[in-house]
Amino acid sequence: MYKRQLKLSAILRTILSSVTLSLLLAVGSGCKDSSQSQGVGWQPNVPFGTLPPGFDSFPERWNKQINDRLAREEAAKQKEIRELRDKFFKEEDPKIREKLQSKLIADEAALSVIHRRQTEGDYIKFKTPADIPQDLKWEDGLDNPEIGDPNAKKGGVLRQWAPGSYPDTFRPNGPNSNSGFRGPLYDEIIIGLVSIHPVTGKIIPGIAHKWAESADRRTVYFELDPDARYSDGAKVKAIDLLVNMYIRTSEYSRDVFYNNFFYQNASNITIYDDNRFSITLPFAKPLLPFYCTLFIPSPPHFYCEFGPSYVERYQWRVPPTTGAYVVKPDGIIRGRQVTLQRVPDWWARDKKFTKYMYNVDQIVYNFIAEPSKAIELFRIGELDVLNITKPELWHERMEIPEVHNGYINRSTFFTIYPRPPYGLFLNTSKAPFNDLNVRLGFQHALNIQNIIDITFRGDYQRLNSYNSGFGKFTNPYIKARPYSPEQARACFAKAGYTIPCPDGILRKPDGTRLTAAITFPNSSPSLASTLGKLKEDARKCGLEIQLDPLDSTVAFRKIMEKRVQASFMAWGFTPPHPMNEQGFHSRYAYDERGSLITYTNNICAYADKEMDKLLDDETNAATEDELQKATWKVQQKIHDEALWVPCWTTEFVRLGYWRWVKWPNSATTQFCHPVVFDPMESYLYWVDNDVKKETMEAKRKGKTFEEVDTVYDQYRYMDSIDSLDNKEGGGKLPSVPVIPENGGPLEPSATEK
Fold first, then answer.
1. How far, in Å, CA of 423 to CA of 337, rounded?
2. Which residues of 391-429 are buried (b: 16+ CB within 10 A; e: fewer)?
């Protein structure tokens, strides 16, 4: 009887699911007017809600794909467990038996997770509102204080420099979409499901105005804000999350990464109606609702021409987003300029946490190849703001009449987290960095501290760990390898480079010279000069460094295709918690056939089973304590394998801006929230057109103002990187509880010591 009830229940659920799915998919398809499908800013002339071709079969296909994958993983894991058990019972060495037992425990835990996911049913489910648990505790985050300045003025134009080259595409998905301009175009302005308050560290609403967590802290139930709209006026619906999955995982978008991403980061997604859905993760997570913002909606009607020619057809189309800005055809000057225009009836313009944000009517990004030209345009008032963090700009190029006469203000903004970590990523799939000894020697051959002390005038700090700046999540026992010709040569000798050439460069007995190329964007002449100094000191160690400066777009493509030996860039910084899986897990390096996978974040092309296990532990950490232990071990492994050369970072951003650009006058929300690196990314600034008129008139008449050099230091919680990453517990972040004030560092393991 009990089994029969279960079966009947399953049948009823299947019927309800089918009915719900039919209702959700009962809309038109195809573009009514494809003649409009050319050019930037294209908007499809189709009914809102129209689903992309092929989507109707996507849920069934995706569920089968996931079930088949789980079955394969189950079989492989069971085989691995059997083999480990055989080895365990045959092994007599107690130390080896202990290691085998540890692996067995980990594998059996992983197998139990696979079994749990299999019993939980399909990845994509369609149910009814009656299936939502009735005992949930719903939250809305409205007890948090407002963000920004009530005195902010709406209107005006802000012109700024886009230092990189013009992007290869405006697509948010597919090849070359992860460019340097992706942030301003999409990531910085899109409103996700929820966000984090900059002061309290608590969850606040985004396009979801209510949420609730399950008792096991694995499932989040969301209810979409009924006002949530895309920039073209279409209502945001729960099904749109699946549309985003469909586009990103399709073979047409050629985006291998997202097939793994969605599989690894969710057990299932359940749609209850247009406004309500839930996301279940494989494991409990700290800040669970915020973690779910990795899942975003896409407007289905925009993709009415989705198909085999997607990459080419949508190359220059800009989709509607949930953000306050949109790109229109008249805002594009190909190769030179992109203008974002504020949506006049933006759905969140009066919401509590966004009403003082996104204040200017237009943001104009000027793509200027030469920094000197950008500086000159800024001086004459053709650009309103300029990043002057680089020491040569701050100390030299800004000692100008426009600053001294008070027309241009200078400010230092200390950030909650250090700036993204700059370092050298070593491609382990290519010689010479497929040899650990070469990687170790390479690190000792770079005189980075000399660059910091002389070139950067001590303004920057040396990084130690890959996750420096994450408070208690930073392993304080890791220190960057110092410059040492002796240690470098010793490591190179272990790799076989023992014979000096006439020019001093080491070679192997077979004649192979010790040479490595560093690929980097040539948008900054100072970077080329800096790397050139590293090159000079490396020669003293027997290492020949070749510099490979490329156009930023070309450089990025070459790096993502993993055709480089080494690359210099900032990569992988993901506050408030470290997320290293994408950067170092083997699933983002090689496919099942052993072929290199391109366009993933594992730009080191690194694959190691032990690292995979450590990364899985980090990804699956249910509490901050578990995350701390796991991420320390990951950082130690990155250090031991010498995959990344830590270079430098800053605790601040320095901006020069004409005095008509204004910042909030609040002690707690000046500019920055936990996932923002740059004050410009906060969109809390505004342009005062009255002050602009006053300034330009004063400049014509020779009238001056008081020189302004301001420090916004409300987020300054440490004196240096070293003070945060120390054995005494690191720096505190009093205003943001996502890094707890208590909880000292863990005791290091034997390997960590």
1. 30
2. bbbbeebbeeebbebbbbbbbbbbbbbbbbbbbbbbbbb
How do residues 694-709 score in pLDDT, each as one tens digit? 999 999 999 999 999 9
Which pTM was predicted?
A: 0.81
Q: What is the pLDDT of residue 13?
A: 36
Residue-wise pLDDT tens digits, 255-302: 777 888 888 889 999 999 999 999 999 888 888 999 898 899 999 999
Q: CA-to-CA distance for 115 and 110, rounded, in angstroms?
A: 9
Instruction: Give the pairing type, strands 499-500 and 506-507.
Output: antiparallel
> Which sign does the torsion angle of CA 525, 531, 535, 536 carry?
positive
From the list 447, 442, 449, the residue with the least C-alpha distance to 490 is 442
Q: Compute the chain's Rg from CA coordinates.
A: 27
Other residues' Cβ atoms within 10 Å of the Cβ of residue 98: 12
- The answer to whether 668 touches 199, Cβ cutoff 8 Å, is yes
Sequence-ordered list of residues with C-beta below 8 angstroms from that of 93, at least 6 positions apart, any chain: none
Got the DSSP string for 159-212?
EEEE-SPPPS---SSSTT-S-TTHIIIIITT---SEEE-TTT--EEESSEEEEE
For 223, other C-beta atoms within 10 Å of its C-beta total 20
Please report the domains of the chain, with CATH numbers, ordered by start residue. Answer: 386-419+653-709 (no CATH), 422-649 (3.10.105.10)
Q: Enter the tokens of residue 24.
A: 């959700």
